[in-house]
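Journal club prep, shared notes

We agreed each person brings one worked example of a sequence with its structure written out as tokens. Mine is Small ribosomal subunit biogenesis GTPase RsgA. I'm keeping it raw so we can talk through how to read the token line rather than staring at a rendered picture. Sequence first:
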Amino acid sequence: MPLSFAFAGSSRLAAYGWDETLETEFTPHRAAGLVPARVAAVDRGLCDVVAEDGPARAATAPAASGDPAGEQAPCTGDWVALRPGGPGGRPAVAALLPRRTAIVRSSAARDSRGQVLAANVDTVAIAVSLAARPDLGRVERLLALAWESGARPVVVLTKSDQVPDSAGAEADTAAAAPGVDVVACSAATGDGVDVVRAVLAGTVALIGPSGAGKSTLGNALLGADTLATGAVRDADGKGRHTTVRRELLPLPGGGVLIDTPGLRGVGLFEASEGLERTFADVEELAAACRFGDCAHDSEPGCAVLAAVEDGTLPPRRLASYRKLLRENAWAASRTDARLRAERNDQWKAVSKWQRRMYKERGRDR
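Then the structure, token by token:
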């Protein structure tokens, strides 16, 4: 398939988010004979991309030895530079453009490396089912992930048709998500979908646990039954992973949607800024504590504990704040230890090479 591109406001890639800034960044790649594309989905060794001439199947390079978690490999939402004449005539990904944003969680193996879920996302839509009592701790965890990515989070309370009144759940969720739009809808009936559509912009990533109604909501936004959906168990409200890979699809009113598989576990990966934004109310209270290093445990003059005592701050929220701070500190220490170990290994390799060179020079004399 021939691939070519010339920037224009009406181009196919403009509908996927291509703009003049990206065009400028792409200048050296274009000079090298490469063409731009956006990654729509990734398989092992291959990825689906959208180029100006249409969709294509492109080859990707094997994971680098220093990148076993694939942090530097193409992922859904990436902008890439394609080499048209790859192996067997198939285009190949030659380079990744710098990511503006990236949703990163700790790897499933918890090995101190990150896993990129989606790149260049503008809005993170966190799906939370109203069919069961919202897990506010999980909401806060996902909000930290979203804020840390650099994108704007939105909480979408789904399946509103399955509860007689969602006002209480909306209020509780809003209290756990300061500064974040919280909207309720029923994708099954269409009620509230227009409101959801109004608060989403640009590249939208749908995240949340299985059974939260992400794919059903995605279909409502797409205006077609494009995404597979499945039933939810009555016993625990959980569903099967009907979405098995992350894929990017154009939205009818503009922008694109990235549907993601259900997240069973969401480990934080160096999310300090995300936690500050998620717990902005706690951080604001902490600024009034008597001691700058107050741990909000038993210190005198602690404004956070005072807010808990007078009912301004729910005890659950403080407990969640402490838990996520501990987890984030642990993840950061693991990453630091890994980086130190990698640097030591590099120095050892250099020293070994130097000793071998000196030894060989001594033999030549």
